Predict the structure.
Amino acid sequence: MTTYHKTGKGRDAMAAGSAAGLMLQDRRILILADGRRTLDQLRRMLGEDILPRVDRLLREGYLAPIGAAASTPVPTRAPAPAPTQAAMTTQPAAQRRSLAASKMYVLDMLQLQRSVEAAEAAAAIRVAEGTDALLEALFQGLRVIFAGSKPSYGERVFERFCAGLPEEALPRAEALRPQPSAGARPQLSIVA
């Protein structure tokens, strides 16, 4: 099965960041195209709608195939018109769910924490191999975020994390849901 890697042009585009003019989804594909992942693995991580993007990245020289089937063209569907903003927001949430997106979100949130614990949790996420190990590292990262933030912020982070998490992992994540503290409501007192 064909695997894909970034070309020199792809690496330059990644180094240039948003100045390269690539869409976020294109950059995610380039990040994950490390020469070890197949197209099927990339589709499972990022969703079915990446095929036209992979095809374009190949045509424009950002990606290149490696392996035995390097001369085989990438299977693509007929190009669909670019989705409008309204179409993107009405797309079912199940189609936008991916473990890679959840990983990126938790890493971004840990970076905002600026603590030793957050840096250690982020490092553990980056080196986690396999779905179960990655999920456990993500959950530990969430615990660090919850411990270092207000309950309302922790709840927002948790909700956003669960919105992108693959559905099969949601029951495990639910056990982490921040519980409102018993004394969270301020008490009014009358001073005479």
Q: What stands out?
A: The chain has ten helices and three strands. Residues 9 and 15 are 10 Å apart (CA to CA). Residues 131-147 form the longest helix (17 residues).
